Amino acid sequence: MAMTLCAFAASSFAQMAATTPSTQPDIPTGETTKYSFANSRIFPGTVRDYWIYVPREYRADKSACLVVDQDDVQFHAPAVFDRLIHDGQMPVTIAVFVAPGKVKALSPAALDRFNRSYEFDTLGDSYVRFLLEELLPEVEKKTAGDGRAIRISHVANDRAIMGSSSGAICAFTAAWERPDAFSRVFSAIGTFVDLRGGNIYPSLIRKYEPKPIRIFLQDGSADHNIYGGDWWMANQEMERALTYAGYDVNHAWGTGDHDHKQADAIFPDVMKWLWKDWPAPVKAGLGSEQLRQILIAGEGWQDVESGPDSGVIPTGLANGRALGPDGRIHRADEQLRGNRLVMAANGGAYVTQAPAGTDPGALWYIAADGKKRVVDKGLKCYSGVTLSPDQSLLYVADARSHWVYSYQIQPDGTVADKQKFFDLYVPDCADDAAAGGMCTDRDGRLYVATAAGVQVCDQAGRVICIMPTPAGKAVEVAFGGATFDTLYAACGEKLYMRKTKVVGSRPFQAPIKPALPKL
């Protein structure tokens, strides 16, 4: 949904400019205290200031909600919080304002290393881990001036994060990476451009299974248009992507430059909107059309407590094993250093050979009569392997790249026409997609276990959906269950399952010709 805030922007700004903490009669004034932090392991060598705002209404016998703001104290926030908390328009909230880190130069003749872009513009979880593992635990060791212990809620629904420019994309990244820690985001003049890859967010938002995040975006048409991109257009792309994916998103567009004027003016109303209906939880949307074709609303990943059961849980989740057309479980030949295998309906099998020492491994074909031969070499790390539903194509993952290769299967079981076909998403903090196990559904989609979770590709080789898995990196994925419509994902020692709207293909059964790909 969207809302136009221009009508009250000027009056809100005028009011807040005149109502500093000392000039808001009858409103209890909170305290804001400055501290310094210099013990980061995630950003070694950095020192930074930070400020803690504690409202007068806070009582130490109950955890407070939290707002984290990047780039020091902004948006007249303490005065705004005093008024909104007093008026009951936002919950009792402790705020932490964080400056970017610096690595101090060893000599007065040298320049400090400024970490702002590195910390704020970089995608991945480094900054949010810094908050959760280092800074916020330090905050909770402090006390208010009158001795009240600082207790912060650890529930994501009770936490907001915000910032401007690079601090805004940093706030969004923190919630995106850890929606279990932050559910509410305010982005002012957000830097969703290619300074350090932030321009990819609109695409990821459209592909990822939606997360429980509520976000407000602000920008002006005279914002930067420089080497890294067009801020004005990038923010509108973000809003359109979030709306498309079903997020609870709002925005205020103006005519301003890369400054705080509009953000300061609308900030009180932004906070009211971000905290509306609290403590009702922020909910995730239904996602793209492609996700809705696969996933069942309200049906998420569930922990499978029992071990593999050959009658329900697919054997493909066990490395180097697959069910064959004879109803028996087949294992990869240990002499081949078998990594993973797939059994075809004709009784043949394809086995990926893991690298060892200077030997990079290979792809083997084992015919129904047991004869085996190498049919492909050249990948960095032969990993997952599966067949298209019509068994005309073989798909092989290279775990040390972002590619899944496609081969045409020849009548004698050899393969030809090798192509880097499926282009997987690689998280910013990784060097490769870490593709593992794979499977297909009867409609021709390819499911790949990766560092980002389960990535789903269409027949044309494009990632259309990304489903994060609860324990992080997925190493195996397969369909199973009584009707073969349950998707299983293995993440290290943990195994998860979820019912879907689709039915998995069974390579050991008769081929199925799927519909033509679209686009």
At a glance:
This protein is of the alpha+beta class and 519 residues long. Helices cover 18% and strands 29% of the residues.
How do the helices and strands line up, and which of them pair or pack?
Blueprint (H helix, E strand, L loop, with lengths): L5 H13 L12 E7 L8 E9 L10 E6 L6 H10 L6 E6 L3 E2 L9 E2 L1 H6 L4 H14 L19 E6 L1 H12 L6 E5 L12 H7 L6 E7 L4 E2 L2 E2 H14 L3 E7 L6 H14 L14 H6 L7 E2 L17 E3 L5 E3 L6 E6 L5 E5 L9 E4 L5 E5 L5 E6 L5 E6 L4 E7 L5 E9 L14 E3 L5 E5 L2 E5 L5 E5 L8 E5 L5 E6 L2 E6 L20
Parallel strand pairs: 3-4, 3-7, 7-8, 8-9, 9-12
Antiparallel strand pairs: 1-2, 2-4, 2-5, 5-6, 10-11, 13-30, 14-15, 16-17, 17-18, 18-19, 20-21, 21-22, 22-23, 24-25, 25-26, 26-27, 28-29, 29-30
Helix pairs in contact: 1-8, 2-8, 6-7
Describe the structure.
This protein has 519 residues and is α+β, with helices and mostly antiparallel strands. It folds into two domains: 6-20 and 29-283, 3-Layer(aba) Sandwich (Rossmann fold), CATH 3.40.50; 290-499, Neuraminidase (6 Propeller), CATH 2.120.10. 18% of the residues lie in helices and 29% in strands. The protein contains nine helices and 30 strands. It has helices at 6-18, 77-86, 116-121, 126-139, 166-177, 201-207, 231-244, 261-274, 289-294, and strands spanning 31-37, 46-54, 65-70, 93-98, 102-103, 113-114, 159-164, 184-188, 214-220, 225-226, 229-230, 248-254, 302-303, 321-323, 329-331, 338-343, 349-353, 363-366, 372-376, 382-387, 393-398, 403-409, 415-423, 438-440, 446-450, 453-457, 463-467, 476-480, 486-491, 494-499. The strands form seven sheets. Strands 1, 2, 3, 4, 5, 6, 7, 8, 9 and 12 form a ten-stranded mixed beta sheet that branches. It has a four-stranded antiparallel beta sheet with strand order 13-30-29-28, with no helix packed on it. Strands 16-17-18-19 form a four-stranded antiparallel beta sheet, with no helix packed on it. A hairpin with a 5-residue loop joins strand 18 (363-366) and strand 19 (372-376). Helix 1 (6-18) packs across helix 8, helix 2 packs parallel to helix 8 and helix 6 runs parallel beside helix 7 (231-244). The longest helix has 14 residues, at 126-139. The two termini are 28 Å apart. The model is unreliable at 1-22 and 306-311 (pLDDT under 50).
